[in-house]
Structure prediction request, 370 residues.
Amino acid sequence: MVKTHSFLTSSPRFTEREGKILHLVVKSFIETAGPVASRFLTVRYDLGLSSASIRNTLNNLESKGYLSHPHTSAGRIPTNQGYRAFVDSLMESAVLSRGEKRLMRTRLMAVQDDTDALIRESSRILARLAGLLGVVLSPRFTSGILERLEIVPVSSDRVMFVISVQGGLIRTIVLNIVVGLRRHHLDRLVELLNERLVGLSLDEIRCTCAERVMDLKDEQSGIVQLILNDSGALFSDDPESRGMQVEGTAYILAQPEFDETDSMRGLVSLIDDAPLIRRLVEEHDFEGVGAVEKARVAIGGNEVATGSDDTNNVRNLSIVSARYHRSNMKGTIGVIGPTRMDYARIIALVEGMAVIMSWPTSTSSRSNRA
Prediction:
């Protein structure tokens, strides 16, 4: 991996010297997972400063909340505030290797027309390259543009609605009916519904379907009335049913932060809690991050636990996430790991993966389920 230096030598929150020392402490701690002492910095880096000057700077950074002093160790470790300053102001940008880029493009482009396969493959690759937990959520279905509505009888009193949207996603919902269906009547009704609804987003259909099909509500099968009664279920997102793939449990458990039984137990509990993972990765605010594929970084504590009552298992974790798009629908991709993660590399991986996942897709795919 090649790094292009974008180090900022000044910040309104700390002096140039403090910024330089904080940058080296965070960088060293990420690499070694051990407290960083002034002697280590003196020996490893040519700073042109005495050990006493470095110690004083470390003391200043600790007093400002950027570093902490664990137990009786002579070294410091970054606090969440220190990591935030590092990511926002001091971090070097990372560039993925050619081999990594080739792997991502080759594996993901091969499944671009199959959203389910794309989600599975991207989470595996992300976990493998990050060495942490890779999480991919399927796109939000309701922003999709309806491509075709099918209504299929499955029994004398039940029909299956098959809702296909641009980008290859399909949702199926089975509802009960009270009147028997005649095939020719159903076929004609489906064509009328498609004439009026195709090309609209599911959100638009949910909000306006009454006025669009009101003149059909008295048709004999009761299908239109069923659509009007259940438009919320048919054309809304069910967060718990949205596809999510999580990979990399073995990778993240290998991190030294989870050597102790309690921390390992907490991480395993988190991994087993799919709804919590979904909320953690997706519910962070993406406003102001720029392009769809631009990463957002949540670092430990309250930043990660936004909207969650379970802060105990996530207080020492960070999440790097980004949106990707399929047609006009947006999904989320992310990496979960300890606060001591290589943020520059993880950001490069998440953003690179999101760009490839957002490659223009065929609208003819019919094999996916939302």
Q: What stands out?
A: The chain is about 45% helix and 20% strand. The chain has three domains: 2-93, 96-140+243-357, 142-236.
